[in-house]
C-alpha cells in the first residue's frame, strides 16, 4: 500500500539515494539538497511502501510575475514505476499548492505526461525563460488562467548548477 506524505528530515538521506538511483548523475540529488539549504523547497512529498521510500517530488519557489512554484525533480525507484506513484505525488503536490494559495506551477517535461494534470504548453509559451520551448508548461491553480501570461520566469538559483 503506497502512502504519500510530507517529507521529514529523517527522509533526506533516502531521498538523496533515490535520486542517485533514478537519474544518471548526481545533479538532481544535489539540486534537492541545495533547494532545501537555500530555503527554496516549498512542497516536498515522499511515497513510501512500508518502510521503503519509493518516490519523491519537490516543488520550489520561482521568480515570476505571480506566486509560482517549479515542479522538479520527480522520481520513482525503477522497480516501482508505472504504478501511478509519480502521478499521485504530483496530484497531491498540486492540491497542496492550491490550498496554500500558490497561483501557478511551471514544469519542464514531456507534454504527453504532464497534460493529464492540466499543464499546458500554450499557457507557458509567452514567458521569457531559458527553458522556453515545447517542453515548458504551466498550470493555473486559481481559476482557468494565470493572471498574466508574459514576463520573465526563473527557477530558484539551485537550478543554475544543474544547467
Ligand atoms: C518519470 C517517473 C517519475 C514516472 O514515475 P511513475 O511512478 O512510473 O509514473 P506514473 O506511474 O505516474 O506514470 C508513468 C507511466 O506509466 C503509466 N502507468 C501508470 N500506471 C500504470 C499501470 N498501473 N499500468 C501500466 N502503466 C501505467 C502512465 O500512463 C505513464 O505512461 P505514459 O506516460 O506512457 O502514459 C519515473 O519514470 C522516474 O523516476 N524516471 C527517472 C527520473 C525522471 O526522469 N524524472 C522526470 C524528470 S524530473
Keywords for this entry:
163 residues, alpha/beta, Aminopeptidase, six-stranded mixed β-sheet, 8 strands, binds coenzyme A
Description:
- This protein is of the alpha/beta class.
- The chain contains six helices and eight strands; from the N terminus they run βααβββαβααβββα.
- It has helices at 12-22, 27-38, 85-99, 111-114, 121-124, 158-162; strands at residues 2-6, 41-49, 52-61, 68-76, 104-108, 127-128, 136-140, 151-152.
- A six-stranded mixed sheet has the order 1-2-3-4-5-7.
- The model has no long low-confidence stretch (mean pLDDT 97).
- It binds coenzyme A.
- Coenzyme A binds next to strand 4, helix 3 and helix 4.
**CATH arch. level architecture:** 3-Layer(aba) Sandwich
Radius of gyration: 15 Å
Order of helices and strands: EHHEEEHEHHEEEH
Summarize the biggest pleated sheet: 6 strands, mixed
N- to C-terminal distance: 36 Å
Domain module count: 1
Give the count of helical stretches.
6
Layout of helices and strands:
Layout: E1 2-6, H1 12-22, H2 27-38, E2 41-49, E3 52-61, E4 68-76, H3 85-99, E5 104-108, H4 111-114, H5 121-124, E6 127-128, E7 136-140, E8 151-152, H6 158-162
Parallel strand pairs: 4-5, 6-8
Antiparallel strand pairs: 1-2, 2-3, 3-4, 5-7
Helix pairs in contact: 1-2
What is this structure, in a nutshell?
This protein has 163 residues and is of the alpha/beta class. The chain has six helices and eight strands.
Amino acid at each position: 500500500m503506497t502512502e504519500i506524505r510530507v517529507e521529514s528530515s529523517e527522509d533526506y538521506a533516502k531521498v538523496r539515494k533515490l535520486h542517485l538511483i533514478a537519474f544518471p548523475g548526481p545533479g538532481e540529488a544535489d539540486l534537492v539538497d541545495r533547494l532545501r539549504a537555500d530555503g527554496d523547497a516549498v512542497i516536498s512529498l515522499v511515497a513510501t511502501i512500508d518502510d521503503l521510500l519509493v518516490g519523491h517530488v519537490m516543488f520550489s519557489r520561482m521568480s515570476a510575475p505571480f506566486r509560482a512554484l517549479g515542479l522538479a525533480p520527480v522520481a520513482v525507484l525503477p522497480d516501482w514505476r508505472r504504478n501511478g506513484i509519480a502521478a499521485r505525488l504530483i496530484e497531491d503536490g498540486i492540491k497542496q499548492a492550491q490550498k496554500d494559495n500558490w497561483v501557478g506551477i511551471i514544469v519542464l517535461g514531456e507534454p504527453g505526461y504532464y497534460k493529464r494534470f492540466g499543464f499546458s504548453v500554450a499557457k507557458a509559451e509567452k514567458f521569457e525563460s531559458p527553458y522556453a520551448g515545447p517542453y515548458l508548461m504551466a498550470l493555473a491553480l486559481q481559476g482557468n488562467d494565470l493572471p498574466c501570461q508574459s514576463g520573465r520566469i526563473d527557477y530558484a538559483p539551485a537550478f543554475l548548477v544543474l544547467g
